[in-house]
Write a structure and sequence with these properties.
Largest sheet: 7 strands, mixed
Order of helices and strands: EEEEEEEHHEEEEEHEEEH
Number of helices: 4
GO molecular function: hydrolase activity; metal ion binding
Cofactor: Mg(2+)
Number of domains: 2
Radius of gyration: 21 Å
CATH topology of the largest domain: Nucleoside Triphosphate Pyrophosphohydrolase
Keywords: Hydrolase, Magnesium, Metal-binding, NAD
Shape: globular
Pfam families: NUDIX, Zn_ribbon_NUD
Structural class: alpha+beta
EC number: 3.6.1.22
Length: about 270
C-alpha cells in the first residue's frame, strides 16, 4: 500500500526503489519487474528523480531517462497497468503523473520564468519571479454505465477497434458538477436523457492525468443518436450477451461488471 504522507521529501538514496521511464514507456527488468533497486542502474544528473511516497516501508522515486539503461527493456504503461493488482496500479499511475508534471512544468505558465526547484514537502513548483504555484494537473472525467431494463448501453468511439465497446465518458467542464457532466455527456454523445445518477467509484487514468469518476444511471427517454465524430456506434446489449468489453483492471470494465451484478441482484423473479 502506497503511503503518500506529508513529511519532507527525501533526496534519492541507495536504499530506495525506483520506477524508470523512457519517453512514455516504463523500463522493466525480467518478469516485467518495474520497482528497481538503486544498484541496478547508473544514475545521472538529468534523470530528475521525483519522490512518490513509501511502499512497504521503502521510499519510491520515479525517474525519466533519455536513453534505455543496459539490462532494461520497454513496456507500454497501459499494457503494464493491465497486469497489476489495484495497489501496483495506483503506484504506477502516481509515478507516471508526477513525472509528467515535472517534465511539463519546466517554466512558469504565467511569466515564463524557469522553475528548477521543487517544494520540500509538497508536489508543487513555485515560480521564483511571480510566486505562482504549479501543482500536478488532474483532469476530472465522468464515465457512466447506463441501464435500460436488463440491458446496458455500450458504445464505440472512432479510435476503438471494431467490435470493442465501452461506456460513455467525457471531461467535466468548468463550473459543472459531476452529475451535470454525466447528463450532458450522455445527451451530447448518444442523445439520451437519464435519471437516478449515482456515484460508484473512481480511478486515476494516467494518459496523461485524468481522474475517472464512475457512475450508474438509468435510461429515462430518447432514441440512440450517435454524435458524429465522437461515437461510431452505440446500442443496448442484454447483460447475458455482451460484446467485447474493457479489461477488468480499468474502471470501465469494473463498472460494467458491477452494474451487471446489480441488475441481476435487483431483477424481479
Amino acid at each position: 500500500m502506497l503511503e503518500i504522507g506529508t513529511q519532507t521529501h527525501p533526496l534519492p538514496h541507495q536504499d530506495a526503489l525506483y520506477i524508470l521511464l523512457h519517453r512514455n514507456q516504463v523500463l522493466v527488468e525480467s518478469d516485467n519487474q518495474f520497482l528497481t533497486p538503486f544498484t541496478h542502474f547508473q544514475p545521472n544528473s538529468k534523470m530528475s528523480a521525483i519522490y512518490c511516497g513509501q511502499w512497504l516501508g521503502q521510499d519510491i522515486f520515479v525517474c525519466r531517462f533519455e536513453s534505455i539503461p543496459k539490462g532494461f527493456s520497454e513496456i507500454g504503461l497501459r499494457e503494464l497497468l493491465f497486469l497489476q493488482d489495484q495497489h501496483n496500479y495506483i503506484l504506477l499511475s502516481r509515478a507516471h503523473q508526477l513525472s509528467t508534471w515535472d517534465r511539463d512544468h519546466q517554466f512558469c505558465g504565467r511569466c515564463g520564468s524557469p522553475m528548477k526547484e521543487k517544494h520540500a514537502a509538497e508536489h508543487t513548483k513555485i515560480c521564483p519571479s511571480c510566486n505562482l504555484r504549479h501543482y500536478p494537473r488532474i483532469s476530472p472525467c465522468v464515465i457512466i454505465s447506463i441501464r435500460k431494463d436488463d440491458q446496458i448501453l455500450l458504445a464505440r468511439g472512432p479510435q476503438a477497434p471494431k467490435g470493442k465497446f465501452s461506456n460513455i465518458a467525457g471531461f467535466v467542464e468548468a463550473g459543472e458538477t459531476l452529475e451535470q457532466a454525466v447528463a450532458r455527456e450522455i445527451r451530447e454523445e448518444v442523445g439520451l436523457e437519464v435519471t437516478n445518477i449515482r456515484y460508484v467509484s473512481s480511478q486515476p487514468w494516467s494518459f496523461p492525468h485524468q481522474l475517472m469518476a464512475g457512475f450508474f444511471a438509468d435510461y429515462d427517454s430518447g432514441e440512440i443518436t450517435p454524435a458524429a465524430g465522437e461515437i461510431e456506434e452505440a446500442n443496448w446489449y442484454p447483460i447475458d450477451n455482451l460484446p467485447h468489453i474493457p479489461n477488468s483492471a480499468t474502471i470501465s470494465g469494473q463498472l460494467i461488471n458491477q452494474h451487471i451484478e446489480h441488475i441481476r441482484d435487483t431483477k424481479t423473479p
